[in-house]
Design brief:
alpha+beta, Thiol Ester Dehydrase, Chain A, 10 strands, globular
Length: 288
């Protein structure tokens, strides 16, 4: 079912860049992007994810909590594209709902080109939250080096999201889930106070991948996300991305992605697949 339609503009890309810290030039620098294989600036993957979260709030209901999300970005989203955001409920078990999520850009005659495809598991407001386990990762074969990148390299960053950041997210995305907007609604859902929206959490990976490791010019192809716990405003959060596989023939990099709170609990766990064809610095990033 079609949830809603929206046009994203360059100003939206710039606002999300400021909010997330991801000023990757494929999103924010028209001159750089014009020379890339995209040909023009493209939307952040997590800005598209925010559009999906808005649809979940409106279609599943206020207070919905995301447990998992996978996203693939088969085609770019450009400024001015008319986007159709849609959800399709697949299964429900124990109150937990599995949903296919999709964003397509609409062309002449309502032709559609997919730009973000994925699946999510959510708990509606009336459903208790289950335990979510971290993924067990195994070593993957691949190449030893690609543009100065090597398996085992990692980068991390720590930040705290303010209430003003949450308000800006809501204004930019249109996502009015009350558990992001007020303490009372969040407490009614079982949390200590309002929580940080999931696209903001995943935006920490967007920042690292697009500016640090692999670096500026990185294109996001796929992201898996699991949320074992929630994060709160003004709480120090540390995101880490670690290279686990290189595929030089396709210019692809797989990275483990995790966010921990200051008390050590795992807030987000997942894996990213990125394209480094447009990497600004091919001699190797300064990862730490």
């Amino acid at each position: 079912m079609s949830a809603y339609r929206r046009v994203l503009l360059q100003g939206d890309f710039d606002r999300f860049a400021k909010l997330s810290g991801d000023d990757n030039p494929i999103h924010c620098d028209p001159e750089f992007a014009a020379k890339s294989h995209f040909g023009a600036t493209v939307a952040h993957g997590m800005l598209l994810y925010a559009c999906i979260c808005k649809a979940l709030t409106e279609q599943v209901g206020p207070g919905v909590v995301q447990l998992e999300q996978t996203l693939m970005f088969p085609n770019p989203t450009y400024a001015g594209d008319l986007l159709d955001v849609s959800l399709q409920v697949d299964t429900e078990s124990g109150g937990i709902v599995d949903i296919a999520t999709a964003i397509s850009k609409v062309g002449a005659g309502d032709t559609a080109v997919s730009t973000a495809l994925g699946r999510c598991r959510v708990a509606p407001a009336a459903v208790a939250l289950p335990e979510i386990a971290a993924a067990a990762r195994q070593g993957a074969s691949g190449d030893a080096v690609l543009y100065g990148l090597r398996p085992g390299m990692e980068a991390s960053a720590t930040r705290a999201f303010s209430v003003a950041d949450l308000d800006e997210y809501g204004d930019l995305s249109g996502d009015r889930n009350p558990i992001f907007r007020g303490d009372a609604a969040a407490r009614a859902r079982g949390f200590a106070r309002r929580i940080v929206p999931w696209p903001l959490l995943a935006g920490m990976f967007s920042d690292l991948l697009g500016t640090r490791l692999p670096g500026r010019g990185t294109g996001w192809m796929k992201q898996e996300l699991r949320y074992p716990s929630v994060a709160y405003p003004d709480e120090a959060l540390t995101a880490t991305v670690s290279i686990i596989r290189l595929r030089a023939d396709k210019e692809l990099v797989n990275l483990a992605t995790r966010i921990h709170a200051a008390d050590g609990r795992l807030v987000c766990d997942g894996e990213a697949l990125v394209l480094v064809r447009n990497l600004e610095n091919r001699s190797g990033p300064q990862a730490a």
